[in-house]
Specification:
The protein has 790 residues and is an alpha+beta fold. Helix content is 17%, strand content 27%. The protein has 13 helices and 39 strands. The strands form 8 sheets. Strands 10, 11, 12, 13, 14, 15, 16 and 17 form an 8-stranded antiparallel β-sheet that branches. An 8-stranded parallel β-barrel has the order 20-21-24-26-28-29-30-31, surrounded by 4 helices. It has an 8-stranded antiparallel β-sheet with strand order 32-33-34-39-36-37-38-35. A hairpin with a 2-residue loop joins strand 6 and strand 7. The protein is globular. The N and C termini lie far apart (78 Å).
């Protein structure tokens, strides 16, 4: 008789699942109850032993696990798909051993408590175990550095001679692991690196790609830069990894005791929310503020950090937004950057403050009713990853385990030509490797479960599911496209199992319907996509989007020429199709060619003072109103609320920083007040929280557009005029009775109010009748008015 022990490892400390059942091909996918246990990683697991007839020796079986949990009863617990190209079944494969043999078939939902420097429980004691994926290595060891330095050269300089070297052994699947080391707590805080003898026999130091902390907090790479041998100036991406206890948090944001007082994760999160102030969990409820932590720190010399982000929360509360989208915070090269190129996906950028301070920030947002959406990057690794992903265990390009390579290096005159490009700023990750995909899905699971983020924005998803080509000739690589789709489905399935309510947003410009299709319909499982086409029609300052409406850009020339509002109406109508509608984002505020901040586009970059400033603010108010009152989930970039003027460039972060807090009470006070009232209107009126929108009027010649927003009996009418002169005698909106209900309409909002710096022309609260699909309204110049049906 053959016996196989099936083990389902969650890798998550909390007990999220129960009533696990094994099923497989040998019993026609019937249910076999599994026993719940606590694995040696301290996390819940499920296991069962199954006997097979000896005649089945050497045969392949397929299997999976059903669970009851947060996503409901009888949920399929295997997110990982079959490795075959044409198969999207999420299930496991196992080859039965020889007759009379014993085997273990183990599945890891996440690698979060398996790879890296992890707690290992044995006989009630907390031990330490190292594990790393390095399938081509000849030898792997852990060496320790010193806390006052934090860097180890390839020749061994920097190794702490007082710490014994830890030898790792192969345990299967390309994984090397140490024997358990006694007294886990004695290792906490120690810097370490993997000393890897690669396939060619060359010994190099590598960081732990699954580390939870990198000791460096600066931007110096000792191989190229003058360095003072301090972790404070050392680039985290090349520095030592650090052993941390993931189950505790520093109680104070900025510790006042030495050593800092620590509390358990459970205790820390027990004070997460404020009674009566719920954190929104549905995209239609959100008004999103796009925030880059490094662009805070007003008045400082260096980049902003998590302390500055904590200090910024009262501004967000005053503004009225209820969601903040953070540009990437995982460890990246240097300490001044947007973060779109990560080396360590489990590490919160050390220069920003690290994992404990990030938890404090998320908790403080939740206490103030603000959801946290985290931007993550899976389409490429940091281009400076020599000590992380790059050539981790082999110098051969075809054995570069984190990067996709086609063919053999001997096939190319230049070996680098075998790598794939995907439209991002780096090579395509090796998506056909399950451990590479699991790196990304496990990192997301940690953000959701251990850091309590409420949602994700995944960077440039079309570079994952569609755009892969040979470096040498640009020919497409369909297999990379297929495995990219596998990654996104596995990622969505994993999150849905762990935390079904987590919001999933794709930065996707492909218009592929499958991106927002559920995974059980072969879709990618996202809830919404970024809507760049709406931005280009509404604002339109990018040089590469000349076919778009470019409404504000055209109006910014100051002429009375027609503007293509009829073209804008098309993208505006589609904002209700699961879209994130933004009138400014980090990509289009000076980063893309031709782009400027909104207030500068509004007057074609004329000097912002006097009447020109007034016109710029008026048009900026108008486009913000269209975006925030659209049927999409509205979002805008930090600084829009005070009329930020400096280009928001990825390579000029400190030069482009503006003091938002000071400006909200100074030159930007009128605009800030407008945003407060506009956001309040969006959040409090039922019609604006729906996905329903109908563009009932668009006149290019008059430069007027009107749309309704309805939910149940609630009726809202938004009219925007980019005409340089007011229609003070009235403007007639002509539609039809079925689209513009007959009755009385009252003005409830006017962007031309004197409280916002406008001329105060409007309808002054009068009840305006609509009849036969027609209504007459006084319209200010370059302004937006909102009427509500009485």
């Amino acid at each position: 008789m053959i016996t196989v022990r099936f083990i389902y490892m969650t890798g998550i400390k909390r007990g999220l699942f129960h009533s696990a059942r094994l099923s497989g091909t040998w019993n026609s996918w019937g249910d076999i109850p599994m026993r719940e246990t606590v694995a040696d990683d301290g996390c819940p697991a499920f296991e069962v032993a199954v006997d097979f007839d000896d005649a089945l020796a050497g045969q392949e079986i397929r299997w999976g696990v059903r669970l009851d949990g947060r996503a409901g009863a009888n949920q399929w617990g295997i997110p990982t798909e079959d490795p075959d190209l044409g198969v999207i079944r999420p299930e496991c494969r196992t080859i039965l051993p020889a007759a009379g043999g014993l085997a273990t078939a183990r599945y890891y939902l996440t690698l979060s408590r398996f790879l890296g420097a992890q707690k290992f429980y044995q006989g009630g004691a907390e031990l330490l175990k190292f594990a790393v994926w390095a399938p081509h290595a000849q030898r792997v060891e852990v060496v320790f550095g010193t806390t006052d330095n934090g860097y180890i050269f390839d020749d061994g300089t920097g190794i702490d001679p007082n710490r014994p070297v830890v030898l790792l052994k192969k345990i299967g699947g390309g994984i090397w692991a140490s024997d358990p080391l006694s007294d886990f707590q004695s290792y906490v805080g120690l810097p370490y690196m993997y000393r890897i003898q690669n396939a060619q026999g060359v010994t190099r130091m590598h960081t732990d790609v699954h580390s939870r902390w990198q000791i460096g907090r600066g931007d110096k790479n000792p191989l190229y830069d003058a360095w003072d041998k301090s972790p404070a100036t050392l680039d985290g991406g090349v520095s030592c990894s650090v052993v941390v206890d993931q189950d505790v948090v520093r109680e104070e944001f900025e510790p006042i005791t030495n050593p800092p007082k620590q509390i358990t994760d459970e205790e820390f999160w027990s004070r997460e929310f404020t009674a009566g102030l719920p954190v929104p969990s549905r995209l239609p409820e959100l008004v999103i503020y796009e925030l880059h932590i490094g662009s805070l720190g007003f008045g400082k010399i260096g980049p902003g950090n998590l302390q500055d982000a904590m200090d910024f929360i009262p501004h967000l509360v005053s503004l009225g937004v209820n969601a903040v989208e953070l540009l990437p915070v995982s460890e990246f090269h240097g300490n001044v950057g947007w973060g779109y190129g990560d080396t360590h996906h489990f590490v919160i950028e050390s220069s920003a403050g690290g994992r404990d301070k990030y938890k404090h920030f998320v908790r403080e947002c939740h206490r103030n009713g603000i959801a946290v959406i985290q931007d993550v990057v899976y389409n490429h690794f940091d281009n400076d990853a020599d000590r992380a992903e790059w050539q981790y265990d082999s110098d051969l390009p075809e054995e570069n385990i984190y990067y996709w390579y086609e063919g053999r290096s001997t096939d190319y005159a230049n070996p680098k030509n075998g790598y794939l490009r995907n439209g991002s700023s780096g090579f395509t990750p090796r998506l056909w490797e399950e451990n590479v995909r699991k790196l990304f899905t496990s990192s997301a699971a940690e953000f959701a479960e251990e850091f309590h983020v409420d949602g994700f924005r995944v960077d440039l998803t079309q570079a994952i599911h569609r755009d892969h080509w040979h470096e040498i000739d640009g020919s497409p690589v369909d297999s990379a496209r297929i495995f990219g789709q596998k990654l996104l489905r596995e990622w969505s399935r994993t999150l849905n199992l762990i935390r079904p309510a987590v919001m999933r947003i794709a930065e996707d410009h492909s218009d592929w319907f499958a991106v927002t299709q559920p995974t059980d319909m072969a879709g990618m499982g996202f809830n919404a996509t970024w809507y760049a086409a709406f931005y280009h029609d509404l604002i339109g300052d990018a040089d590469n989007q000349l076919d778009k409406a470019r409404v504000l850009h055209r109006a910014g020339f100051g002429t009375d020429d027609p503007v293509p509002l009829s073209q804008l109406s098309g993208s505006l109508a589609r904002t209700g199709d699961a879209r994130i509608a933004y009138h400014e984002s980090h990509d289009e505020a000076g980063n893309s060619d031709g782009t400027l901040r909104t207030i500068r586009v509004a007057v074609n970059d004329a000097a912002l003072f006097g009447p020109t400033r007034d016109a710029a603010e008026a048009r900026a108010r108008l486009v913000a109103g269209i975006g925030i009152l659209s049927a999409g989930t509205p979002m805008f970039l930090m600084g829009e609320e005070i009329g930020a003027r400096a280009p928001f460039k990825h390579n000029q972060i400190l030069e482009g920083r503006e003091d938002i807090l000071r400006e909200s009470h100074g030159l930007g006070a009128n605009l800030f007040r407008y945003y407060q009232d506009l956001i309040r209107l969006r959040r409090t009126r039922r019609g604006f929280r729906s996905r329903n929108i109908d563009i009932i009027h668009a006149s290019d010649g008059n430069r007027v557009i009107a749309f309704t927003r309805n939910e149940g009996p609630t009726r809202e009418l938004v009219i925007a005029s980019l005409n340089n002169r007011p229609f003070d005698g009235g403007y007639i909106i002509q539609s039809s009775v079925d689209r513009l209900s007959p009755g009385q309409w009252q003005e409830v909002f006017n962007s031309d109010s004197r409280f916002y710096g406008g001329s105060d022309l409007g309808n002054f609260g009068a009840a305006l009748p609509s009849q036969d699909g027609q209504i007459e309204v006084r319209l200010p110049a370059n302004a937006l008015v909102v009427l509500s049906m009485l």
